[in-house]
Amino acid sequence: MLATVVFAIALQTAPAQATKSDAVPSADLVVQRAQVAAKAAGKNVMVLFHASWCGWCHKLDDYMALPAVKPLFAKSYEIVHLTVLENDAHKADENAGGEAWLDKLGGKNQGIPYFAMLSPAGKVLADSRAGGKQNVGFPAAPQEVAHFLDMLKKTSKLNVAELKTVETELLSAGKK
User: Which residue, among 153, 164, 151, 140, has the nearest Cα to 69 in the 3D structure?
Assistant: First the structure.
């Protein structure tokens, strides 16, 4: 009888524990899955580093979700988010190993949002450091927008008209 009660309690608590531990996959797993999907689809990987408290991160996510640009990004990238640099209240939302990936991709001490484009094999093709120096974050200033567009030209399948749409929508989103 005691064994039955213990087993029943274990069954009730096991799913909750599994759900909590599985809710936030490691950064390695997130990137690995994206690389596999990118290879199968003939795309590259866009890794976006963000945190719940980061207003510019939310602004970038909102921009990339716009109906005019979302399919354009989806055409060229498997897009993944890695949660890093969270405050104490949201520390459990971080992807384990995310800060190591941020460092590996050139974003240490660069602030967020930070992003990088990778080949399906994991080679860094471009990152959000303009001139390899300063992170553009949400690209709003003319030189930041130019860097972002250069990144897309090097790593995406977007044609001239699609790049113009990305630019137009970005400049509009930057003013909001």
Answer: 164
**CA 147 – CA 133 distance, rounded (Å):** 12
pLDDT per residue over 138-150, tens digit each? 999 999 999 999 9
Specify the pTM. 0.85
- 20 sits in the region (left: phi over 0; alpha: psi -120 to 50; else beta) called alpha
Distance CA 79, CA 99 (A): 18
> Which tokens go with 94?
């971080």
CATH (domain of 32): 3.40.30.10
In a domain, 15, yes or no: no
The number of distinct structural domains making up the chain is 1
d(CA 43, CA 98): 22
